[in-house]
Amino acid sequence: MDNPTHLYLDLLKRTLTNTVYQDSSNPRLPAGPGAAPHGPYNAELRSRGEDWPTVAHTMVGLKRLQNVQDCVERVIADGIPGDLIETGVWRGGVCIFMRGILKVHGVDDRAVWVADSFQGMPEVGEDSKPRDRKMRMHEYNDVLGIPMEQVQENFRRYGLLDEAVKFLPGWFKDTMPEAPVERIAVLRLDGDLYESTTAVLENLYPKLSVGGYAIIDDYGLRACADAVHDYRDANGITDEIVTVDKFGVYWRRSA
């Protein structure tokens, strides 16, 4: 029989992705090559994080949530020092899951940092990277812009809003250079854009402990992948990039 820890985390994943009540995809999902069709709940798309749920507290899907669990449990087991952080949280589901993992394992010496503009995506201008201008994600801020108070309420509904949850509101270009987090064990990026991804990597990756994990949620987007490779190349990072699904990848810092 499964143990209570496994059962709790499995239920938490299913609740955060809403595979329990099975909400439909949001019709504001951008159309285009590779985009999931609009319509009723689709278990395979939800598992892969390829739709925008209307109700669920995360859009990353079950596979990427499992990756978060694997990475967090590994740094706990291996004693890798540092906090957990996600940059770009939407409704807060991944960070809620991170807090749940720490709580169920009785870890009380790590914080979960919740970093977001809480306004959606920054509007791209003529001085932005061409691929960022092409994506124009700010046009969907009616769906992407979730106020911090709502994210805090979502934590509260799971009984997981406490002093170990730290919020960093603001645009990454402004908040990342002064982010008060000292050491990181799991760094999860979900900022989509080249400039957003670069701002996080330049300021937070040096704080990632050896043995810690960098998780890139939007690697399937060319702008994000370019930012990742430009940073890795500039800093001599050769750790193997491991694929999670169509969009997500991760690597473990070796040096």
TrEMBL record:
Biased composition (Low complexity) is annotated at 31-40
Indicate the secretion signal residues.
Answer: none
The GO molecular function terms of this record are: metal ion binding; methyltransferase activity
Task: Give, as in the UniProt entry, the pathway in which the protein acts.
Answer: Antibiotic biosynthesis
Give an example GO biological process.
Answer: antibiotic biosynthetic process
Does ATP-binding count among this protein's keywords?
A: no
InterPro entries (alphabetical) = SAM-dependent_MTases_sf (IPR029063), TylF_MeTrfase (IPR008884)
> What Pfam families does this protein map onto?
TylF
Q: Which Gene3D superfamilies match?
A: Vaccinia Virus protein VP39
Region feature (Disordered): 22-46
Q: Which UniProt keywords apply?
A: Antibiotic biosynthesis, Magnesium, Metal-binding, Methyltransferase, S-adenosyl-L-methionine, Transferase
The family assignment reads: Belongs to the methyltransferase TylF/MycF family.
Name of the protein in its database record? Macrocin-O-methyltransferase
Q: Name the source organism.
A: Actinokineospora spheciospongiae
Per the UniProt record, the lineage of the source organism begins with: Bacteria, Bacillati, Actinomycetota, Actinomycetes, Pseudonocardiales
